[in-house]
Design a protein that fits this description.
The protein is α+β, with helices and mostly antiparallel strands. It is built from three helices and three strands. The longest helix is centred in the middle third of the chain and has 13 residues.
Amino acid sequence: MLKKLLGKLAVPPIHEAAQAAWDRGDTVFIRKAHPSPTKQDRDIAEAVQRVTAIGWDLRASDWEGAGLSRHVTLTFTRP
């Protein structure tokens, strides 16, 4: 029961959230992501590839912060 509750409260991976937004018919999908410091932004690039494979177009990527507080806001739109 606890595992089920934690699963409902967890934030889904970006590609799962993008697929859900696509299925709902949303016109814009915006997601904030924190890159792993050890992967040199490869994880963000992989996430963008997965989301664009669904059909979304990347319109903007705004980077903010530095060090461990560094994050990116990705904005996708339907083609």
